[in-house]
């Protein structure tokens, strides 16, 4: 297996199919292949006719590189030694690499394969026993029996859904060409295997960009399936240094990964205590990437030795002393690449193959020698030379010959010099000086405002390995590249900072602003701790105004005094965190402004009178504790992101917010004085349709108490955080609908927004956030009586049903019904619910039916004939009854009576606690939910909805849902 694909479950294929072609190729396998392809699953099928028994290298690689192997056992399977050899290799990979194996029994009973009877037993008598063990192991795995399925098409669909669930999304992505990775990874894994009953602590140490994180990810990918509790925390240093609450954020992430719950932490010390308490004794896999201090380790894991036996704890760091202090068991040292690895890594980037192409071997070796075994240099220069002519390579080599081996920055500059577009160079330098760690979309907006075409420019930089797109879409780059870019700027005027195009070093900025020596700046960056402020006069910007050059200005925790009109009118980005004035001065009018960041400011209002800023797209006023109301948004027509989280005095959002046609994000989290949102957001009547661009609405932890019911009309909203509902809309909206159907589900008092009509929900639409189907009924939402969910498959139906039943608190706790001491204290009661033309029976014979039910809980009672001679009775223990619609019904059903026997103490009321009825059609994969108001006053329209979805032979189950934990003993369904 090539180094580019070995060692990592960055699999070559999703699925490998093992089958005997003469038995299955024309039916099951061909159908499965088409279905897997349509589902986007990358499948390897051996299409060759085989003669002999030895598997070729390509086939071995395919098996090793497949995430899942499917074994299709047919009657004549064992007649093919080729199939059996594939089987043996598959089971070997299953044992050694943890690959998933799924058997399918096609026209053969699973017990025959497991016990090796019939043809399987006879043929194996004459073949090598090496296949016997593999066959037994495979047949004992959980799989699929074709004979138990109604149709082959249905089986294939179920298999596809199962495979999609099995395809492991927990594996971490690693570099494209992991050359030299396998040997390092296997040494660590082999050591871990020798410590099965203790906590194994591993350190990975080396310089920046030497492959520490990649090695840790590869190890994690290989062993994470053995751990139910696992977490990989990236960029510890960066998060802790750049975020005020970075340590707390990482503690919350770790707890969430391991416990699968959200944990609010108020201080690092409390977080450490909670981690030590909750993790003690658990078998864990925890990786902390790029740790720089012992304090970070203690905050995130306390004492890892307290983890349960078999736990693995991995730390990557640049500081070898840190690993000695925590006394790790094994240190993996990242060294410069040796022998053939540097040439192979360079070749993958320069030629997209593991070795140089013809006539480039000597040139390649010369370049690799200059790179000194540093992976970063090999990657950057190799990418730069990709696709270039031999003459261009020779020109690059001439440059390399003039650069000393130890001057890595100068080597990396070759890639920068190769950028033909001056705009791409400007973008690179701006990122080096100002925007590392910033969101890509945020930076793109700002640089586009500077006329730099950042969409394509950043893409080019990523392709040239000059910029990385890191977690959460943040911009990043290696420290050496960052220093190289800043050195380019510094060298433009080494002795006079005022003549440089960009200023970022604190002392240089302070010197320039106090001595008024600025000449041609494009950007100015000064960020100080909020505990130490400095003061400047705006006169320092006078020459900038004359030259109209300054476009990027960040002066965090700086007090500016004087005439704000002195500042350049060309500004696109202004960040003045900790702004001390009550409002933005009237003379600070920036008509070209794209982004304004005033976090942690003391402003009480943004402007005395809102300025018309046509180009402003991002407004961030977060953590402004005295801000009382938002600006008039009619003067900010192109605003895309409004971020005002943690503004505790904010009590008013201007109603013009509904006029924003391009808004993507509204974040009002922790605005605790905000008790009501303007009509355009909160009531969300017809005005919400004007905000078609809104994708994210965050207003959690405010004084707003209720989610507006018409919010589900929006087709654009992808993320919602409001009234303790938080997450993707495809997950949140169904929960909202279920809660509205049963008000008892909510801890907050609420009036149900629905009344007397039905709402049809497609589960496909829910999960794809395609909620436009609500539009036809939206005018009558106040009258909603029912919800109808259409699922794609029985698997999805089961998932949706369990979700609904859990939220409806349907009681299946048999322990509550099994204790005679408790039952003796409860009285049996009954409830009759009529659907269709059966009210006469309930009115005339309901009392006797109820008495018969509560006397012995039996279904053996007499239903009088008359107009209803052919009643069919079905009974079920607990809150549901399952039945099949008779196939010989030659007319429409006329009615259904639900007879519910339940136990209740005197404190628990009876029928008043009914929350709803669910009718599940397993044949048609539908769920109909009728709230209490509907079933207690069932009308003709409701009955038509029920019967329209019931056909002869359909498998149907009816659930009754009670609040207050009432215990349902028996449910009977009487239909005619």
Automatic annotation (TrEMBL):
GO terms for biological process: defense response; signal transduction. GO terms for molecular function: ADP binding. The keyword NAD applies. SUPFAM superfamilies: L domain-like, P-loop containing nucleoside triphosphate hydrolases, Toll/Interleukin receptor TIR domain. PROSITE patterns: TIR (PS50104). InterPro entries: Apaf_helical, Disease_R_plants, LRR_dom_sf, NB-ARC, P-loop_NTPase, TIR_dom, Toll_tir_struct_dom_sf, WHD_ROQ1-like. Residues 11-167 form the TIR domain. The keyword Transferase does not apply. Pfam families: NB-ARC (PF00931), TIR (PF01582), WHD_ROQ1 (PF23282). Keywords: Leucine-rich repeat, NAD, Repeat. It comes from the Eukaryota. Gene3D superfamilies: Helical domain of apoptotic protease-activating factors, P-loop containing nucleotide triphosphate hydrolases, Ribonuclease Inhibitor, Toll/interleukin-1 receptor homology (TIR) domain. PANTHER family: LEUCINE-RICH REPEAT-CONTAINING PROTEIN, RESISTANCE PROTEIN (TIR-NBS-LRR CLASS), PUTATIVE-RELATED. This is Disease resistance protein (TIR-NBS-LRR class).
């Amino acid at each position: 297996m090539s180094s580019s694909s070995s060692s990592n479950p960055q699999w070559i294929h999703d699925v490998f199919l093992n089958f005997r072609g003469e038995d299955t190729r024309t039916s099951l396998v061909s159908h499965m292949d088409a279905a897997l392809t349509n589902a986007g699953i990358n499948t390897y099928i051996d299409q060759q006719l085989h003669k002999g028994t030895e598997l070729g290298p390509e086939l071995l690689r395919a098996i090793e590189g497949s995430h899942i192997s499917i074994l299709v056992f047919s009657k004549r399977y064992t007649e093919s030694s080729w199939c059996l050899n594939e089987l043996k290799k598959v089971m070997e990979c299953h044992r050694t690499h943890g690959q998933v194996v799924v058997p399918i029994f096609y026209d053969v009973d699973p017990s025959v394969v497991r016990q090796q009877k019939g043809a399987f037993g006879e043929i194996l008598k004459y073949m090598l026993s090496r296949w016997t063990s593999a066959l037994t192991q495979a047949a004992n795995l959980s799989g699929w029996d074709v004979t138990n399925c109604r149709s082959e098409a249905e089986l294939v669909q179920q298999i596809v859904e199962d495979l999609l669930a099995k395809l492991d999304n927990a594996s971490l992505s690693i570099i494209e060409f992991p050359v030299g990775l396998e040997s390092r990874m296997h040494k660590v894994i082999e050591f871990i295997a020798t410590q099965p009953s203790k906590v194994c602590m591993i350190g990975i140490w080396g310089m920046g960009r030497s492959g520490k994180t990649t090695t840790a990810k590869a190890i994690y990918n290989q062993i994470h399936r053995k751990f139910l509790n696992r977490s990989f925390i990236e960029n510890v240093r960066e998060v802790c240094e750049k975020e005020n609450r970075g340590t707390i954020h990482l503690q919350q992430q770790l707890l969430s990964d391991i416990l699968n719950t959200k944990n609010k932490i108020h201080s690092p010390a409390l977080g450490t205590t909670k981690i030590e308490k909750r993790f003690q004794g658990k078998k864990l896999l925890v990786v902390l990437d790029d740790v720089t201090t012992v304090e970070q380790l203690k905050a995130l894991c306390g004492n890892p030795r307290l983890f349960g036996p078999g736990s693995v704890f991995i730390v990557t760091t640049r500081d070898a002393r840190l690993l000695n202090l925590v006394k790790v068991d094994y240190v993996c040292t990242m060294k410069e690449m040796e022998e053939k690895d540097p040439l192979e890594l360079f070749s993958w980037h320069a030629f997209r193959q593991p070795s140089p192409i013809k006539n480039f071997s000597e040139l390649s070796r010369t370049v690799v020698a200059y790179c000194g075994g540093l992976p970063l240099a090999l990657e950057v220069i190799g990418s730069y030379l990709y696709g270039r002519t031999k003459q261009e390579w020779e020109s690059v080599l001439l440059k390399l010959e003039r650069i000393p081996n130890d001057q890595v920055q100068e080597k990396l500059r070759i890639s920068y010099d190769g950028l033909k577009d001056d705009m791409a160079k400007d973008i690179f330098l701006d990122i080096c000086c100002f925007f590392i760690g910033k969101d890509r979309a945020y930076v793109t907006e700002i640089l586009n405002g500077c006329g730099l075409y950042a969409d394509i420019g950043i893409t080019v930089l990523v392709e040239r390995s000059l910029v990385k797109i890191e977690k959460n879409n943040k911009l990043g780059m290696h420290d050496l590249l960052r220093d190289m870019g800043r050195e380019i700027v510094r060298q433009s005027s080494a002795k006079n900072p005022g003549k440089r195009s960009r200023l970022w070093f604190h002392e240089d900025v302070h010197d320039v602003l106090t001595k008024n020596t600025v000449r041609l700046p494009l950007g100015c960056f000064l960020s100080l701790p909020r505990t130490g402020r400095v003061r400047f006069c705006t006169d320092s910007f006078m020459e900038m105004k004359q030259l109209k050059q300054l476009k990027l200005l960040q002066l965090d925790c700086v007090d500016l005094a004087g005439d704000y009109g002195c500042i350049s009118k060309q500004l696109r980005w202004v960040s003045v965190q900790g702004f001390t004035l009550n409002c933005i001065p009237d003379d600070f009018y920036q008509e070209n402004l794209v982004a304004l960041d005033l976090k942690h400011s003391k402003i009480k209002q943004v402007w005395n009178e809102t300025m018309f800023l046509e180009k402003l797209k991002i407004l961030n006023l977060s953590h402004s504790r005295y801000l009382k109301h938002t600006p008039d948004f009619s003067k900010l027509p192109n605003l895309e992101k409004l971020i005002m989280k943690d503004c505790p005095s904010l009590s008013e959002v201007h109603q013009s917010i509904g006029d924003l046609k391009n808004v993507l994000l509204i974040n009002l989290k922790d605005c605790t004085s905000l008790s009501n949102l303007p009509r355009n957001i909160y009531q969300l009547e017809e005005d919400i349709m004007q905000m078609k661009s809104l994708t994210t609405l965050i207003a959690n932890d405010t004084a707003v108490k209720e989610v507006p019911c018409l919010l589900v009309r929006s087709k654009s909203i992808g993320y919602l955080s409001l009234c303790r509902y938080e997450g993707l809309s495809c997950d949140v909206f169904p929960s909202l609908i279920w809660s509205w159907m049963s008000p008892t589900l909510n801890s907050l008092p609420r009036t149900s927004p629905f009344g007397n009509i039905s709402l049809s929900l497609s589960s496909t639409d829910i999960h794809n956030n395609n909620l436009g189907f609500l539009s036809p009924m939206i005018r009558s939402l106040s009258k909603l009586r029912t919800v109808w969910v259409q699922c794609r498959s029985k698997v999805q139906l089961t998932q949706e049903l369990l979700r609904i039943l859990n939220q409806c608190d349907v009681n299946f706790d048999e322990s509550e019904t099994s204790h005679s001491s408790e039952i003796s204290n409860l009285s049996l009661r009954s409830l009759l619910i009529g659907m269709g033309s059966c009210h006469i029976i309930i009115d005339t014979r309901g009392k006797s039916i109820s008495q018969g039910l509560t006397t012995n809980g039996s279904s053996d009672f007499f239903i009088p004939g008359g107009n209803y001679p052919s009643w069919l009775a079905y009974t079920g223990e607990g809150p549901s009854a399952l039945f099949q619609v008779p196939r010989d019904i030659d007319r429409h059903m006329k009615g259904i009576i639900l007879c519910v026997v339940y136990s209740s103490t005197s404190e628990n009321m009876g029928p008043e606690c009914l929350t709803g009825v669910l009718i599940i059609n397993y044949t048609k994969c539908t769920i109909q939910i009728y709230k209490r108001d509907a079933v207690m006053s069932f009308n003709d329209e409701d009955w038509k909805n029920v019967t329209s979805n019931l056909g002869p032979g359909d498998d149907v189950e009816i659930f009754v849902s009670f609040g207050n934990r009432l215990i349902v003993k028996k449910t009977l369904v009487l239909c005619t």
